[in-house]
Amino acid sequence: MTLQQFMNEALSPWMRKEGPDSDIVLSSRIRLARNFANVAYPILADPDQLEEIRNFFKEKYENQSFEEYKQFAFISIRDLSSVEKRVLVEKHLISPLLAKYSESAATLISENEQVSLMINEEDHIRMQLYFPGFQLSKALNKAFEFDDWLEEKINYAFDETRGYLTSCPTNVGTGMRASVMMHLPALVFTKQINRMIPAINQLGLVVRGIYGEGSEAQGNIFQISNQITLGKSEEDIVEDLQSVVQQLIEHERHAREQLMDQMRTKLEDRICRSYGVLEYARIIESKEAAQCLSDVRLGIDLGLLGNVSRNILNELMILTQPGFLQQYAKKTLTANERDVLRASLIRQRLELEK
């Protein structure tokens, strides 16, 4: 795989597949933080040490294959333009933080984009593995296998009492962040989400936006993940998260049923208006586009719209982000130019479905 191939497709191959409860749970992710033993963490390491780690991954893992995820492409962050970095962030292949660590930072990305490994971010290693829908346990098992594959050549920083040692104390222990991306429009529409988020936080979980810490929940998409990594096993963490996510799924389904029973005409009107905006608008900001795409996706899930596929909406959620728009235009765009191009791309993509 080449960098250009990752840039050209908004939707990663694994995202085209259906998973359990995929009408509400968009994806499940396991992320593991690891460090080399006897090497300073990235925040304290000197440039030569970080360069050695970067070169180690290039030498040992570039073009290597891991199970069905096929070959890994090695990409140096310092070789990327600002737009290319932004596109990789928008596809969740790297974090916003890694995009800033340009000198010795790098990433390994599997051919199907389901597995990626961030090098010299906050820790030496941040590996992440995605599955479509609600598949946290399966993602955990595969993450363990990938972790074991890496450990064959790496001596991890590990303490018998504290577990895996990490740059940030909140990751010590398992070094794991388990998360799900959820589409919760009915809970937002009925304002039930406002009382649920504080309750979720009290359970040792955190609710964030689509791009993690510090990001906004655009398009009614929320990321739910664990906060505690020390004192619990990976299986226990996943089990606790699964329990909360299952309750959120049930609440969202119930809220959708209520909307259909009690406010069907108003709901249909909102969904059709949003579809009309997407189909005919000549200028549209990213926040408005995300909201309209969320409404239309809800309409598809409820059987109120039958002429648009769910995958197209997933694709448009990414394709209409600022990085992808500029990648498509092959130049830097002003905010207004992005709004015009965003509207044009949405209209063209919807037209292909007719």
TrEMBL record:
The gene is mcsB. It catalyses: L-arginyl-[protein] + ATP = N(omega)-phospho-L-arginyl-[protein] + ADP + H(+). ATP binds at residues 27-31, 92, 126, 177-181, 208-213. Belongs to the ATP:guanido phosphotransferase family. NCBIfam families: PRK01059.1-4, PRK01059.1-5. It comes from Virgibacillus massiliensis. This is Protein-arginine kinase. A motif (RDXXRA motif of the pArg binding pocket involved in allosteric regulation) lies at residues 338-343. Appears to be allosterically activated by the binding of pArg-containing polypeptides to the pArg-binding pocket localized in the C-terminal domain of McsB. The keyword Transferase applies. GO terms for molecular function: ATP binding; creatine kinase activity; protein arginine kinase activity. Its EC number is 2.7.14.1. Residues 24-255 form the Phosphagen kinase C-terminal domain. PROSITE patterns: PHOSPHAGEN_KINASE, PHOSPHAGEN_KINASE_C. Catalyzes the specific phosphorylation of arginine residues in a large number of proteins. Is part of the bacterial stress response system. Protein arginine phosphorylation has a physiologically important role and is involved in the regulation of many critical cellular processes, such as protein homeostasis, motility, competence, and stringent and stress responses, by regulating gene expression and protein activity. InterPro entries: Arg_Kinase, ATP-guanido_PTrfase, ATP-guanido_PTrfase_AS, ATP-guanido_PTrfase_cat, Gln_synth/guanido_kin_cat_dom.
